[in-house]
Amino acid sequence: YQAGASSARYRTGNRWEVGRDGGPPPGGVAGDVTRVIVIGAGFAGLAAANALTSAGVEVLVLEARDRLGGRIRTAEIGGTDIDLGAAWIHTPQGNPLAQLCERTGIRRLPYALDDLTAGVALVDGGGAQVRGSGRSSLIRSAAGFEGAAAKLAARSTPSGAPTGPGRAAGGGRETTLGGLIDAYCAAEPDTGRREWMRFILQTVVETELAAPAAELSAAVLEVPEPYGGGDDVPEGGYRRLIAALTPDAAVRTGAAVRTVRADGAGVTVETTDGRTERGSHVLVTVPLGVLKAGTIGFQPALPASKARAVAALGFGDFEKVVLRYGSRHWDEAATGFLVRHGGTPLRAWIDATGPAGAPTLVALAGGPAGRALSALAAEEVLRRAQDVLVTATGARLPAPAAWAVTGWRNDPFARGAYTHLTPGAGVAAIEELAVPLAGRVLFAGEATCPVRFGHADGAFVSGIREAKRLLGAPSVELRLQA
Ligand SMILES: Cc1cc2nc3c(=O)[nH]c(=O)nc-3n(C[C@H](O)[C@H](O)[C@H](O)COP(=O)(O)OP(=O)(O)OC[C@H]3O[C@@H](n4cnc5c(N)ncnc54)[C@H](O)[C@@H]3O)c2cc1C
Fold first, then answer.
1. Which residue among 276, 286, 451 is best mutated to probe the pocket of ligand 1, counting the most ligand atoms within 8 A of its Cβ?
2. 304 C-alpha to center of ligand 1: Å?
3. Can you state the percent helix, strand and coil of the chain, rounding each to 5?
């Protein structure tokens, strides 16, 4: 049991007001807020716990793992800090995580995904590369998809949804991103180019959104983008943001919650070791994958509308393979490789030597590729990764000096990567997840953030939203650690 970090050092002028958006605080809270139990010490739980503690509310954080951060995990691999969970601050302009970096003196390094895609080497089955103008014209065509997709979607709904594998399963009318990729590529007369375009677009979409393109609702195209700019990474990794946000509250690690009970006077939360804690309110921030698995029992049971949202939203796959080498044995001109080889799940690689500060290749396996990797033992993934890289680089690669393979899908406290919209569940389902129960049981986490689900900043904003709800305040203050 780790009691409040009362010896923590705080930065001078550490109080930071966040969340003032002009609107009234969200409502729906019953009774006085005297003791809040926060389940989960990821971005959402830590942001809420920090804001509540700073406002003088007693908080107990229960975290199942033996570490803080949740789907933020910066690991040292061969002496280099690498993010195995969230790595990028996407669209940093106006993004509260960019502000959090500024407040805490954490530098952001530009590392734009568009630049990574533009500079990637395209490698075919036998190791042959598509070079020169053939390569750049394919990359240009793929880059045109984003602009064309909204128009294609408008043309294809509600009655004329594209047919083929990308159409919503179950005869639904809703268009999927897979359907739009098919429609976009159909306009390309050259078969060879068409197949390359389809491969690039499918890989990029499935890597970014962590789900099969054929299961991703095109409604995601209508979600407004609140921030601007490319993509940055925090210097030294995301763990520095978690460290800055760690609240001066009681935090118990190794505490997996199995029951949440609400009654007229408060809440009782039970952990798997049989201990119970009483609070006036509880804030549930566990991943959607954990809610789907049903390993936490709610009394009274989740209402049908929320249970439907939990079941219908998607919680996809994204695994990483990190290989750290003694030196760079590959073509340094490319930003990475897209490998169309024997259906391998190890198809998208980035050269992360720049941000890592040491020769490093990282495979990003989203959607079906991630799911395929999660079924293999780590040593088998490593063996296949080395085989693919021999094809991709044309070099005899030595064994890596250090390596890591993630297992988010098989982790009982994640059960996947992050949330996506499906043909059966749009933004309304995300909003439904955020609705409090009986004024006592509240919900936060990336899956509850209508504009930024699937993002670390969405988790942060959702934690601030629930702190505002509990405090009945239009904004909150955070105390950031030095
Ligand atoms: C591989 C990968 C790459 C990603 N890349 C990016 C990126 O580049 N940029 C970006 O913005 N986002 C990215 N994301 C998404 C981002 O990491 C998440 O949106 C964010 O970290 C989620 O925070 P959270 O607080 O909602 O949930 P979590 O961080 O999952 O926190 C929930 C906490 O609840 C705990 N918990 C679970 N069950 C129990 C239980 N029964 N009892 C007690 N505690 C429990 C968990 O251990 C966890 O600590 C990525 C995610 C993954 C997996």
1. 286
2. 25
3. 35, 25, 40
Handedness of CA 330, 333, 337, 339 (dihedral sign): negative
Task: Please state whether the peptide bond connecting residue 398 to the residue before it is cis, i.e. omega within 30 degrees of 0.
Answer: no
What's the full length of the chain, in residues?
482
Cα distance between residue 198 and residue 116, in whole Å: 18
Say yes or no: CB of residue 88 within 6 Å of ligand 1: yes
Q: Domain segments of the chain: what residues? A: 10-70+235-311+419-481, 144-222
Fold of 10-70+235-311+419-481: FAD/NAD(P)-binding domain (3.50.50)
Q: What is the pLDDT of residues 435-451, one digit of tens each?
A: 999 999 999 999 999 99
**Bridge-based pairing state of the strands 231-234 and 89-90:** antiparallel
**Cα 289 to ligand 1 centroid, rounded to whole Å:** 10
Distance CA 176, CA 165 (A): 9
The residues, ordered by sequence, that sit 6+ positions from 141 with a Cβ below 8 Å of its Cβ are: 188, 193, 197
Q: Between 99 and 11, name the one with better pLDDT.
A: 99
- HSE, side-chain direction, 13 A CA sphere, residue 282: 27
* ipTM confidence: 1.00
d(CA 19, ligand 1 centre) in Å: 21
Q: Is the pLDDT of residue 168 over 70?
A: no
pLDDT at 171: 41
The angle at the Cα of 259, spanning 417 to 59, to the nearest 5 degrees, equals 80
Tell me how far apart the alpha carbons of residues 72 and 455 are, in angstroms, rounded to a whole number. Answer: 11
Structure token pair of residue 325: 């080498």
Task: Look at 153-157, 244-248, 323-327 and tell me which has the smallest mean pLDDT.
Answer: 153-157
- CA of 155 from ligand 1 middle (Å) equals 36
Pocket test for ligand 1, best of 418, 420, 451, 452 (most atoms within 8 A of CB): 418
Higher pLDDT, 481 or 232: 232
Q: State the pLDDT at residue 119.
A: 95
